[in-house]
Amino acid sequence: MASTLSSFHALALRNLSSRPVRTSLTALGIMLGVAVVLAVSIINDGTLASIHHIFDEAAGRADLMITNSGVIGEPFTDEILSRIRRLPGVQLALPVVSGRTLLASEADKWGLEVSVGGTHTANDLLIFGIDPAHDRQVRDYELVAGRFLPAEIDSYSVLLVDEYAEDKKLSLGKDIAVLSATGQEKLRVVGLIAKSGPGLQNNGAVAIMPLKTAQSLLDMHGELTQIDVLANPDIAASPRKLEALKEDLASALGHGYQVLYPAARGQIVARMLASYQTGLSFFSAVALFVGAFLIYNTFTMTIVERTRAIGMLRLVGATQRQIVMLVLIEAAVLGILGSLAGTGFGILLAQGLSRSVATVTNTEIRALRIPLDGVVWSLLTGLGVTLISALLPAWRARSISPLEALRSYARPLGAPLGRTGWLWGCLLILLAYLALYRIPFRPEVQVPIGMVSVFVLLLGATLVVPITIGPAERTLRPAMRILYGGAGQLGAANMRRAWARTALTVGTLMVGIAMIIGIQTMTHSFELDINHWVQTAIGGDLYVRSPLPMREEFGTRLLSDPAVAEVSPITYQQVQRARQGNSDSFSNTILFVGIDPQTYGRIASFVFEDSSQDTAQALKELAQGGRLLISVTVADRYALQTGDTLALETRRGVVQFQVVGVVVDFSSQGYVVTGSRADLARYFGERTVDQFIVRLKPGYDPRVEAKRLEDHYGKSRHIAVETAADFRAKVTRLAAQAFALFDVLGLTGVVIAALGVVNTLLMNVFERQREIGGLRSLGMTRGQVARMILAESGAMGIIGGVFGMFFGLFLARVFLLGVQEIGGYTVRYHLLPQALGVGWAIALIVSQLAALYPAQKAAHVRIVEAIQHE
Amino acid sequence: MMTILEARRVTKQYRMGEVTVHALSGVDFTVAKGEFVAIMGPSGSGKSTLLHLLGGLDSVSDGEITLAGHRLTQLNDNQVTLVRRRNIGFIFQFFNLLPMLTAEENVALPLLIDGQNLNAHREHIDHLLQLVGLADRRHHKPDQLSGGEQQRVAIARALVTNPAIVLADEPTGNLDSKTGEEILRLLRRSCDELHQTIVMVTHDARAASFADRVVFLMDGRVVGQLRTTGDRSADIRAIQRYLRESEERAVLAPEPQHP
Ligand SMILES: Nc1ncnc2c1ncn2[C@@H]1O[C@H](COP(=O)(O)OP(=O)(O)OP(=O)(O)O)[C@@H](O)[C@H]1O
Ligand SMILES: [Mg+2]
Q1: Which of residues 322-381 of A touch B (CB under 8 A)?
Q2: Residues of chain B neighbouring A7 (CB-CB closer than 8 A)
Q3: Which residue of A270, A341, B26, B201 sits 20 to 30 Å from the alpha carbon of A300, by its own alpha carbon?
Q4: Cβ pairs bridging A and B (under 8 Å)
Q5: How confident is chain A (870 residues) per 10-residue block, as mean pLDDT?
Q6: What pTM does this model have?
Q7: Nearest-neighbour CA in chain B from A11: distance (Å)
Q8: CATH number, position B189
Q9: Closest to A629 (Cα-Cα) out of A602, A604, A654
Q10: Are A431 and A463 in contact (CB under 8 A)?
């Protein structure tokens, strides 16, 4: 260091560079925190941008869009088209019908995929039926080869996306065969378009064809799924006039239709994923909170260690303000370094994680954009969090007296808030407890309150830790003596002597362990519930499905198969909860699972929240009609319980259904009700079957029978048979994948905590160099010194583990709250005793591993130097 | 003669739970500009306490201290700090250097803290390093210097702001007698050549003989003083005689009473 200091504040840099290990560990902690936050925000942005992009492009230049009022994509009659066209201000109204089918060649490879947004088919082809004569006024079809569709509305010609055609080996001028309601149809490929505009839909697997052709393929004669409206230019140019037109349209069409701005569609899909994204953000925020706490700890420790040096600065005339500035500048430098590194690492992390997020959310994330504002924001967050965390330590440094420099031994810093600190701590813990368990806050505020209570709890625990150290040390001393010899006893005693320092290390360990236990308990609770539900509710041996609607009679044919014991049909229908006030349409969309009360009970059963209820009784009730079982999530969200009524929009207007039970159900994000198929037919006009669940006679192998049934019926009826075991595995795999991300975030927290422990222990050793030198001069061997440090750290590990266990249970509760309030799932709290044990063991292991380097450093303290100099 | 430092009826009590320790009980003490004063007394007599109060490191229980025209006892922490920064230099038994700074940087530290441009003081710092004989070791860190060398850095640091007064607490307590002599000679020189005012606490008669005047403290009170003659060995003998006599007096006298 040949360059001389240029200013007093440059001293901060010197402090940092003279302790490279500590500086890098702290910066690393900040880096990890910032990286996680940035990565999550980049991924979330990328997912959202992708979704909006697809829908914006598909909507083209349309000003307004008309859909079914219930669920977008449900058909409605094309008779309204002429009514719309007559309305003043409407320049053009374009009909669209869309639905899903398969290439005939792929019918047997058809399968169901599961994602956070719900289930979807893996290789389906989207039929997009348009008016060839006019559609190009709204949408741009970027022709790559061939020509556009002929003008007539019923030609059997089709446009494919070039990428898709290449992938499926389909060529221009040839015919393709797709499944239709009645069998198969052949279409001539007349043109190939680029994967842009309407070609972006369904990830390019889209067949664009004339309207009539599409209607007949989908068996939707006279029906549309969407009408795009182009307004007169003067109206389109004025948001106010457009809004007026939107309202005119809505009132002209009346009940049963909704008029949307095209962007709204993307928004609705985006909202489906919002809960998962908020979940990710929540955990990244928790990681940052933990990081902040550890930075606070590290800085407090730095102050403890430097008490003498700070006293000396005060002695030669540094003002209190200058001392505060010195600490804050140090923090700022660390914050900037850590945040810069974190930004770089966060971008890498985003790329690494995006693949797995894409799988979980079933959204292809287009090239990840690195948002400038996101980067700036994460830099500021990192810097801000570091500065805020350093404020309190800086304030404590301010009060160090110049006389501290004159003491031959540094006096340990007192406990924060002095003697009554632990009382404040207890109060804070009590407050956090009440906020989490006792006070029923409204759902919207529960998550922020949960987050704040995490912080309050941490603070409370740190204040309480100091008073527990004395008794804990007395209890542990004999054990330490046995484990580490006489040096061990000394190590344990050290812990009590510098209790402020000990409290900080224990606090750091506590946070790490709590993270492990919290995440484990949450994951475990979730998995238990999901597995139980998967095992019980997803009953039967086989699932028979088809991309085309099936008839009930098919069930009878299945039943006549020699291997089949029982068959029960199931129908899924998206329904709307009757609007209440201004709640938006997404949170009112519910999946109605229609079952057959006569046969369902023979194959599967329900998982009731109230274990005294049983399936047979519930089925009897459902058979009477007008009754529903609701999921725990629905019960939670709409504040319903058994005996209440749930109002649904039906074909016969709003109907009040009576709630006869609350069940655990994880399908469709938990927004599920179960009723009878008869009700579905009566109130929603839905009579087809989406799926048959099949129980085999004893002795038949599901895998073999699945294959046989599929071969037997597959060709003529396009059915796919999946074993229940496979489906369960899929659901479980998805859950595991979704949690893998949370685990990454949790692990980051643990790593940050481990860094913190190494840091505090190292500082312990640096601060005590003189003392350790003294002990060595009195004849302590290197081994004894190392054992002393290990014993001290081990004892802190034990205490930190105990605190971590308690705090971890709290944290698990906050995590579950997070999952519940933002993810929509209501998960029951399951205590996992192993997690406590594992957490505690990790506390011990981390405490010993983290102490290795400091112990080695201590063992090699040079006696002479240590006792000669400061 | 101009008075640079004046302590009037200074008392200091330390409360230790139930017990009150009377470290100083009404000390009157003045130092003239350019004077080199030694404070002597048995262990626990209150020497260090007095020095701390004079330097504004601690606050008095009662009494007044005026240093270079500043009423220390009426200033807040910030104001006292500024007085300390610009008017007082400290030297202690343990050298109190910042380990991560070089000798030269340690010397310059008070100027840095005061926000001064070091280039303007380059010559001054060089001169001081030469004065203490460390010009060739300016880039060494404290742990690369001997105890005597570290103390010389501390002296240069104490002098760098041209302070009104230097306060030294047993500056030779941690050094062998030869190195101690060198340090004392250095202090004497800075008094003679730079007209530096110095107050030094010591319990070594040889060290005290370097001063112009020796003040004796006992049980928190000033019990007497001696003016040196310049004849070192005679002065040492006089100081030792005084100490011996006062010890005998203390043995005969009853326990001091506190009001
Ligand atoms: N911080 C303190 N708290 C309580 N008592 C103190 C404190 N500092 C000093 N004392 C007491 O005040 C008295 C004077 O102490 P001081 O350090 O001034 O003595 P001293 O003359 O410098 O002794 P020595 O020659 O041993 O350094 C002693 O009785 C000491 O115990
Ligand atoms: Mg003393």
Answers
A1: 322
A2: 112, 115
A3: A341
A4: 99
A5: 62 82 82 81 72 64 74 75 87 87 71 48 79 86 90 88 89 87 85 85 87 88 88 80 84 79 59 60 69 76 80 88 90 90 87 71 62 82 86 86 71 59 86 76 66 77 81 84 79 72 78 79 76 70 78 87 90 78 57 89 82 86 91 80 88 88 72 89 85 88 87 71 79 68 68 74 72 73 84 86 84 73 62 80 83 83 59
A6: 0.67
A7: 9
A8: 3.40.50.300
A9: A604
A10: no
